[in-house]
Amino acid sequence: MNETKLITENIRNILLIQLGDIGDVVLTFPAIKALRDRFVHAKIIAAVRQKAESLLEDCPWINGVISIDQQKRSVIQEMAYQWRFFSDLRKHRFDLAIDMRTGTRGAILAFLSGASQRISFYADDGKLWRNRLFTHLAKIDYQIGQYVGDYYSGILNAYEITTQSNLPRLPVSSEKQAIINSLLKTERIPADRLLIAIQPFSLWQYKEWKKENHAALIGQIIAEYGATVIITGSPGERERADEIIRLIKQDNVYNFAGKTSVGMLSALLSVCKLFIGSDSAGIHIAAAVGTPTLSIFGPSSSASWAPKGEQHVVVHNKNFSCVPCRNKGCQDTDISRCLDELSVDEVMQALRTQLRKILAK
């Protein structure tokens, strides 16, 4: 492990690497802002997976984004792509590279960036060659139940680059707000009704509540509050959103799955009064743009992943002492009984309490 002091003078170009999922990128925003506050005049470039690229379009603390394209190519095409990619990477003449994870892809990216100083977490997983690609390593072990935003900021705190807050914030441009307002008008969504977004889907099936429960919940929301509900998700989840809508007898529910990019989703969620979702990227994006959330958690840890603050509420099944087990469903079966047996009434009760606070403001 390398505990060499970081040389902060004359740092002009910084590469921050976050190759996790979209939620991980959102939870890295405080670290990005800490870099901007510490290196006011430096050029900061973020390297993220392609699906998260548009999320950073409105981030005011960076100067550019490097998108990691992981699509399949032939061997020759892949060699040509990698040559162009790393040639363009070196043109930035990075002085400092920071990898926010312990994987090997980010380590290689940091090393090939040409940065003279390269920071990351020490990885004690047998891949010690990965550690040798860095000049500075911090031994920061993730603690069970630790908020992931705190963990990511820890790598900078280890080198006296401090964050004022570890709660993600993401401004939304007026241009994107105008586009979303136009989209809502095109979809003939009434402007005078309570607007609630629901994302029933996750990258992982074991984190999802049943579609029948989502349909029943949406039906009750519309019946009790006269609300308009939009279902969000990826293009590949559009058909699943339609399945939920077919189970609902009321109007005022709209399928927005795949209708916006990840970047535009932040603008859409910013105009909603409440966001309801499972442990997925949506809850992090909603919280970052200032929208209150109600998140439904099962086997994953809400202490680690749920948004923080009084306007964010977590619902989980209190009848299961094993929650959170942090497994991929019961006995890693992708089936989570704690979610399957979480009642609509329990979620609705939490939602009523949440909406009373929201509507009272």
Secondary structure elements and pairings:
Blueprint: E1 13-18, H1 22-26, H2 29-38, E2 43-49, E3 64-68, H3 75-90, E4 96-99, H4 104-112, E5 117-121, H5 128-131, E6 136-138, H6 148-157, H7 174-186, E7 195-199, H8 211-225, E8 228-231, H9 238-246, E9 253-255, H10 262-270, E10 274-278, H11 281-288, E11 293-296, H12 302-305, E12 312-315, H13 337-340, H14 344-360
- Could you name the CATH class of the largest domain? Alpha Beta
Helix vs. strand class: alpha/beta
Helix content: 25-40%
Which architecture name of the largest domain does CATH use? 3-Layer(aba) Sandwich
CATH superfamily of the largest domain: Glycogen Phosphorylase B
**What distance lies between the first and last C-alpha atoms, to the nearest angstrom?**
51 Å
Beta-strand proportion: 15-25%
How large, in whole angstroms, is the Cα Rg?
21 Å
Report the average pLDDT across residues.
92
What number of domains? 2
Give, in spatial order, the strands making up the sheet with the most strands. 3-2-1-4-5-6
Global outline: globular
The biggest beta sheet is recorded as: 6 strands, parallel
Number of helices: 14
Elements, N to C (H/E) = EHHEEHEHEHEHHEHEHEHEHEHEHH
CATH topology of the largest domain: Rossmann fold
Number of strands: 12
Q: Report the uncertain regions.
A: none
